[in-house]
Amino acid sequence: MAVVFISPKKRQKTFFLGITIAFALFLIFVSLFVFLSKPKDVSETLVFNKPKVSINMEFLDSEQFEKLEPFEEMEVQYVYEVLTKNNVLKTGFISSTSLEQAKKILGSRGLNVKSIKETESGRENPFTPYYQSVVIPTITNTTATTK
To answer: Is the pTM of this model over 0.70?
Structure first.
């Protein structure tokens, strides 16, 4: 009878080697099972879901639709220079749907149109706030009083 002594470090190495080999075989088996398996058959019928929204176009024939009135044209703002009856030059703004109508409105007020043009919308600097507080310099009247 022979007594064989195996060191604890060698047992530990053998145990970890066995676990590592078992884990590697498990991963190989699972990957082969997953990647090499035949995919399931899928039916080739195209599935189309009918939309659940229906649009009723009968309102186009209704009496309410026929009574609708069109919107008025949008007014544009114009800046003008005019001469009054006293030959005084005045400037201002007027809103109208067309340039001709703006001229007609100013003419009906008895003003002689010197120039008129459409104002540009927007701001020169887009980074300035809409509501900017304006600082107005005050002039103080400093008079020295002598007694």
So the answer is: no
In the chain, at which residue ranges do the beta strands (DSSP E only) sit?
A: 76-83, 89-96, 112-118
10-residue averages of pLDDT along the chain (147 residues):
68 91 95 83 70 83 86 87 90 91 93 90 72 57 48
- Cα separation, 105 vs 76, whole angstroms: 14
**Distance, CA of 82 to CA of 115 (rounded, Å):** 7
- Distance CA(86)–CA(61), nearest Å, equals 59
The values of phi and psi at residue 50, to 5°, are -70, 135
Give me the DSSP letters along 96-133. Answer: ESSHHHHHHHHHHTT-EEEEEEEPPPS-SSTTS-SSPP
